[in-house]
Specification:
alpha/beta, four-stranded mixed β-sheet, about 290 residues
Length: about 290
């Protein structure tokens, strides 16, 4: 089921992303980076995107597997590295997850929580060092940071067991994130000469309502700071790696925020996954004059 459905959805989504971008043709694409933790197939979606969209046979393909909810950022970081090395590169980054394939009927608390949170979804980004379409809002990727929360490995895991894929999701995860997020995010911003107050928008992976509540409280964010993350969670659920890209897309579609001194709208984004791993990305939203 995963192989069949992921092939169909990934090809349609890649085609739509290129059409909406409006800046690049299919012949311009040089790389495909595909991330998923809910299934495997070879040849997989990365292959079918190249074949069925008629991309060049020389397109380089990379798959990031089984990383969990934070995989969008390693995928975007890989795309950024490719574009820094080759300014002519155009990279399709896709995160596709079918979490519903792994729902298990159980009275285990981890299973009940997972079944109530997780959903299916896919998101695609076009990454390039070339000049963007000046008529569209875009994100400039300013940097990424990886961190591990100490003594947290047993609280979140995604394993392949004898009866299928098994989720380990402790009720302590929100508390662990809440206790560690301020020094982590504060340090990331400080290294780039920024403060929490200079962040215009927060794109936080909505792993669950309690996680968003803890992040908001720990960072002393205003009541509306995580509205987009809450909206995505309410409307779509937790789609694992694709979810934070949904949040970023919503922010991209919003009217420009008033920013002191101009220069674009600072975005701080973060996602959490097995480990506990915290991935952070800094963006600047650029809009047409």
């Amino acid at each position: 089921t995963y192989a069949r459905a992921s092939r169909d959805m990934s090809v349609k989504l890649a085609s739509r992303a290129l059409q909406e971008c409006g800046r690049f043709s299919r012949e311009d694409v040089t790389h495909v980076v595909f991330a998923s933790c809910t299934g495997f197939a070879s040849p997989g979606p990365d292959y079918h995107i190249v074949r069925e969209l008629g991309l060049k046979d020389s397109v380089e393909r990379y798959s990031l597997g089984f990383m969990g909810c934070f995989a969008a950022f390693p995928a975007l970081r890989m795309a950024a590295t490719i574009c820094e090395a080759n300014p002519k590169a155009v990279v399709l980054v896709m995160c596709l997850e079918f979490c519903s394939l792994h729902l298990q009927v159980s009275d285990e608390p981890d299973s009940i929580v997972a079944n109530s949170l997780f959903a299916d979804g896919a998101a695609c980004a076009v990454v390039s060092a070339r000049e963007p379409d000046p008529r569209r809002a875009v994100f400039r990727m300013d940097g990424f940071h990886s961190a591990l929360i100490p003594s947290s490995e047993s609280h979140m895991a995604w394993e392949i067991g004898n009866q299928g894929f098994n989720m380990v999701l402790s009720s302590y995860v929100p508390d662990l994130i809440g206790a560690n997020v301020l020094p982590m995010i504060g340090g990331v911003l400080a290294r780039r000469g920024l403060t929490l107050e200079e962040v215009a928008n927060w794109a936080v992976h909505p792993g669950g309502r309690a996680i968003l509540d803890k992040v908001q409280a720990s960072l002393s964010l205003n009541e509306s700071a995580l509205d987009v993350s809450r909206e995505v969670l309410r409307d779509y659920g937790n789609m694992s790696s694709a979810t934070v890209l949904f949040v970023l897309r919503h922010i991209l579609d919003q009217p420009p925020a008033d920013t002191a001194g101009g220069g674009g709208e600072r975005i701080c984004s973060m996602a959490f996954g097995p480990g506990l791993t915290v991935e952070t990305a800094l963006f600047t939203k650029l809009t047409s004059p």
